[in-house]
Amino acid sequence: MLCAAACLALIGVGHLALSGSDALERDGLARGQLAPAWSLPGADGVAVASPPQSPSRPLQLIVFADHSLKSFPSVVAGLRDLRAGHAGHGGDLEIVILTRGSAEHARPLLRELGLGGIAVLNGSSALYGKYNVRVMPFAIFVDAAGRVKASSLVNHDWQLAKLRQVAAIPLEPADLAAA
Fold first, then answer.
1. Model's pTM, two decimal places?
2. Which of 87, 86, 107 is nearest to 97 (CA)?
3. Which of these, 93, 127, 98, 101, lies nearest to 110 by C-alpha position?
């Protein structure tokens, strides 16, 4: 009985550690950390890779989301602004939306929301786990070297704009050491 009580106590402590705002602050990857490398086929059959492969677009924004993005109109507006370069940065940014499973239902809705032209890829729970992402929408900026430049849960357009500003700040040795 004592062992059962101890096990229940451990489960309760674990549940508390994985829930709440403190746990969400630990989601994602730290600035300067190496992001997982991957290559996934897009809807048109052309592979999309991370870290970004294009010299003209050395920064990649990976948005962990799906059709539920419609519930975050401010985030959608922020993605449209970033894609158009309204955030004060040119076309050096590649945006990718990574779903947790099949992207089939998300693609048409995201086109309707004005996000056509952004790659919407079939992700997986395992890939979300490699990025330490549990909630959506979540945004991670990755540079051409595969380093995380900024990472956060996003609910508003201003948060995407602020993350883009942080991503433009060069990594310091302290960022790399902490990662």
1. 0.83
2. 107
3. 98
CB 95 within 8 A of CB 116: no
pLDDT band of residue 86 (cuts 50, 70, 90) is low
Residue 71 is classified by DSSP as G
**Is residue 109 over pLDDT 90?**
yes
Work out whether strand 138-143 and strand 148-153 pair parallel, antiparallel, or are unpaired: antiparallel
Contacts of 28 (CB under 8 A, 6+ apart): 131, 132, 133, 138, 140, 148, 151, 152, 153
CATH of 28-178 given 3.50.30.10, 3.40.50.1970, 3.40.30.10, 2.20.28.10 = 3.40.30.10
* Predicted pLDDT of residue 89: 54
Q: Do strands 138-143 and 47-50 pair parallel, antiparallel, or not at all (unpaired)?
A: unpaired
Helices and strands of the chain, counted as H and E runs: 7, 7
Cα first-last separation, the chain = 42
